[in-house]
Amino acid sequence: MDRPIGLDCFIYLRKSRKDIEEERKALNEGGSYDTLERHRRQLLELAKKEHHNILEIFEEVVSGEHIIDRPEIQRMLRKVEANAVDAVLVMDLDRLGRGDMFDMGYIFRTLQYSETIIVTPTEIINPLAEGAELLFGVKSIISREELKAITKRMQRGRRVSAQEGKSVTRKPPFGYIRDENLKLHPDPETSWVVKKIFEMIADGHGRSSVIHELRKLGIKSPDKAREWNAVQIRNMLNNEVYLGHIVWGKMKWVKRSGKYISKALPSDQWIRRDNAHEPIISQELWERAHASYGKKTPKTRKKSKLVNPLAGLLYCRYCGYAIVYSSDKKGCDMYKCKSSHCKGKQRSALVSLVEQRVLKSLEQIVSEFEANEEHQIKQPSTIPMKKKALTTKNSELVVLNKQKDNLHDLLEQGIYDVTTFKERQKIVVDKIKTVQLEIDELKQEIEYEQEKEKKQVKFIPKIKTVIEAYHFTDDVRKKNQLLKSVLKKILYERKPKTKRDGFALEIFPHI
């Protein structure tokens, strides 16, 4: 078909795995190779040549196999579904996706239903044309098979590298640095930390004690965005890389319903290369640490007694972590945030005081609702007002759409030139979008208020029942269940130098 001109278009840019390999190769050779910049320049030149209007450019910073892994194409397809453009400009069809037939079918249907064509430097694909679905399907299958071949080649390369004693993980293990040949060497700045962890465990310290020591020394965790935790310590203790060995292929990741699920593989399928690099710890220290590891960890009883009535409900306002139930030196039950981020700015509080405040907050919800019921004439529902506003906005939208239609008449009559038409149309279209957004928001608010009023009628009696039942039971588990039936979560805050009851709670009920 003839190449169209003057279309409203989106540009979609995405790196392939081959592009990433080329960029890495160029970087290793001291050069530079920016795939997205090169493709952007080529597509903008094409748009200029064919007089297309570029409304938005979507750049995918990840090379995901499936749509669910690529947020930019999801955002673009939502706009395409809303008939935002006439065409999508891409370098090749496979830039839109090399996923399974479900993904490619979704892309095709979205383009077909919105009558949006695909424009590349070499071809035009119109999803409404005869045979387009077959062409799209064949090209997608070819792209998919190419992807499988690339993936197999990369996996084969990783297996060979692991057999040669090279590190093929995304980043080197904590305590090591990796050279250009993928060989590991102890990191002078962090290798001593690994050894210290093994030594502390070997000397009988538990993971909590190790974590406390690391935090006290100000040592950053492998995941610098988070604090040290027990899982990180466990993973390090079980990683034979610190003995100088490379072990690869313990787990296999399979995608199910858009999520990756790990599957443990038998040891005879692992790829192993002993003495591949310089160890950080000795075999003797490894054995001592593993002999000691877990001895002081108490076994969890299947029917352990719950002691915290706010378990799973109370969270720190500052860091978002769960508030911990514990006893102080005097034997008083306290709520405390144990995150190092909150040290010095978040004080603890007596469990009994926090528990009483939660119940008072629930009683306050009931009192406020009943007071509003008594003064309903003074405090009417906002729904009628919002419905009236919705009617006004709908009328405004009708007027704006008529204005938009009149613009075309003025253009045909020669009163407006194209530039003036585009300027005036943009103003009207922007107003239409704003009014439509306000209409959607009003509809959501009305629906929310209606649902909220319905829930309140049922919810307030439920809160009353919970408060009454709470006072008549000593079973902490039942108390916890009662609170969870009416509350989503509670945010806790107590600043330094405040009275013992000078804490603040924000409760989030199920309304």
Automatic annotation (TrEMBL):
Alphabetical list of PROSITE patterns matching this protein: RECOMBINASE_DNA_BIND, RECOMBINASES_3
Statement: the UniProt record of this protein carries the keyword Coiled coil: yes
Keyword list, A-Z: Coiled coil
KW Coiled coil (keyword) present: yes
Any one GO molecular function term: DNA binding
Residue span(s) of domain Recombinase: 173-299
Record-annotated Resolvase/invertase-type recombinase catalytic domain positions: 8-165
InterPro entries recorded: DNA_bind_recomb_sf, DNA_bind_recombinase_dom, Resolv_N, Resolvase-like_N_sf, SSR_resolvase
UniProt cross-references to PANTHER family, sorted A to Z: DNA RECOMBINASE-RELATED, DNA-INVERTASE FROM LAMBDOID PROPHAGE
Protein's recorded name: Recombinase
Organism: Thermoflavimicrobium daqui
